[in-house]
Amino acid sequence: MAKGKDVRVRVILECTSCVRNGITKELPGISRYITQKNRHNTPSRLELRKFCRYCHKHTIHGEIKK
Length: 66
Hints:
It comes from Paris polyphylla var. yunnanensis. Keywords: Chloroplast, Plastid, Ribonucleoprotein, Ribosomal protein. This is Large ribosomal subunit protein bL33c. It is found in: Plastid, Chloroplast. The protein has 1 helix and 4 strands; from the N terminus they run E-H-E-E-E. Helices cover 8% and strands 44% of the residues. The protein has a 4-stranded antiparallel sheet. The chain has 66 residues and is mostly beta strands. The radius of gyration is 14 Å and the shape is elongated.
């Protein structure tokens, strides 16, 4: 069974509000979530409203590259 082309892949969601405010990537000030998506059903980048513990509100979290 081939493991390279799995249908479900792990993706990392990152808060877009924290990134726009100029927080650097090295500091622990960006909210991130790990989830899975189906590659066939959603080939584009995933965006979900999740709670950001640094902004203290629900914001858009977008998919980033690993």
